[in-house]
Amino acid sequence: MSFVLLVVTQRLAEIDDVIVVSCGLNLQSGLARARVSRFSDNLYAFPHNALLPTASGAIKNTMSFEKLGLSAPILRAVSEQGYTQPTPVQQQAIPVILSGRDVMAGAQTGTGKTAGFTLPLLELLEEHAQGKGRRPVRALVLTPTRELAAQVGESVEQYGKYLPLKSTVIFGGVKINPQIEKLRHGVDILVATPGRLLDHVSQKTLDLSHIEILVLDEADRMLDMGFIHDIRKVLRLLPHERQNLLFSATYSQEIKRLASDLLNQPEQIEVARRNTAAELVSQVVYPVDKARKRELLSHMIGANNWRQVLVFTRTKHGANRLAQQLEKDGLSAAAIHGNKSQGARTRALANFKSGEVRVLVATDIAARGLDIDQLPHVVNYELPNVPEDYVHRIGRTGRAGNEGEAVSLVCIDEHKLLRDIERLLKRKITEKVLPGYEPDPSIPAEPIRQGRGAPGGQRQGRRSGQPQQRRSEGRSSAKRSTSGAQTERSNTQKRGDSHADHAGHADGQRRSQSKSHKKPTRPAQQRSASGSQRRRRSGEKPALLGG
Q1: Rg for the chain (alpha carbons), in Å?
Q2: What mean pLDDT, rounded, does the chain reach?
Q3: DSSP-assigned letter for residue 271
Q4: In whole angstroms, what is the distance from residue 287 CA to residue 285 CA?
Q5: Long-range pairs for 536-541 at CB < 8 Å and ≥24 separation?
Q6: Final residue of a domain: which of 452, 481, 503?
Q7: Average pLDDT over residues 326-346
Q8: How many domains does the chain have?
Q9: Phi-psi region of 529 (alpha: psi -120 to 50; beta: other; left: phi over 0)
Q10: Which of these, 30, 118, 124, 226, is most buried using a 10 Å CB contact count?
Q11: What is the pLDDT of residue 279?
Q12: Is residue 538 part of a domain?
């Protein structure tokens, strides 16, 4: 059933973030989906970022970027990227960040969160742009993986193209000398992965003492990958007086502890329920014997004429093997994981986006930060050991209002993993049996290898609060050193791609856990001019666009 709604331009009433609208039809059957509260037959209330069902699908918000307090050069760049209306997370986050307040935002991938912190960050730095001469790094964005760092760096360049600001991206797996050269010329905004950032600090090629804004992007993934020790190392290098922005798709206890240590009376923003899958993604489970998974996958891709499919495996070896098997089946496929060079990963992703490669097989960490517009299909060839990873996986599809499909091929060994995922989602995932691929009931379940013995180095359910011995990477963290730039540079280059996250993908290996540090007290001295101006505004709770 479709609905026609008339949204009143002048609000009749407002309670917190609720906008009252007048409707021409009774919407009782659509209330649950639209999260609408009915006041009377013709009067309803809904959250300002809700999408209401209509004949065309949904009434979208009519808020514009112009009303968010952004400068003309930024608005021009946003317009050139084809964006006219901010997403819910952008509507809520941008005014708060511009006010100078700390932010803790719960936002999944595909919600527009990158622009949600990039746009106000550019605005704040542009207000006090440095003149000629060496530029100190004033904003630091930390990401868990190289691909996500590159994506954020690209956004900074696109939205800041008309501003007198400089930015650069640093991560491992590539030569460090070009990065040193860029830092030597000075940058305002630095996007980095934790390990390579600390490499530069140890070589004294990077000064973090002027940081005004710190962003932790996908903080949950950084903690899952064991970067908590590195993050705390970085925090000790920063000025106490700064603005902190934490973005996370999920809120674990580790995230809450980090937020408590890091943030100062933060504004909490949440545009998606915690640990939930995207609402526009249809999810289905196909039971199948493990030995027939590849056959079923090839059949589904061919029979349904899927032109672009992202497939997840648990291990790097499994990703390689599956991609090779799909190629033998006549399907163009490529694997992306941490053992691949940065150039190979970049080429594989570019070929996938262009359509030259039909199937991209990836490990969990390798796919983190992949930004693929309108990706229609995600397949869990193997279920993840950590239930939250399921949410991250299928979050690759169903983005920006587009529908998506998430298919899971589940063998008897994975029944417990499936139950854990359904417990997290608080729902039963639809199950379908494809004729001809019915599971053999006589096949017994076998244990799934856990821990470090599992190929591919995936994290296998280990949480960031648990200590572990880091893998050798040419030197221990105790050897991060003061022994001179030349020795460190040589070690860094020798490490090459082995200096990646513990799955071989992100920059920096998991380091042994340290004792938690107490939250530092803020010093009494005055902040920098730009910082003070932002903090003076922090008492003003900015009006959200339309709120």
Answers
A1: 24
A2: 75
A3: S
A4: 6
A5: 536/100, 537/98, 537/99, 537/100, 538/99, 538/100, 538/101, 540/99, 541/99
A6: 452
A7: 89
A8: 3
A9: alpha
A10: 118
A11: 60
A12: no
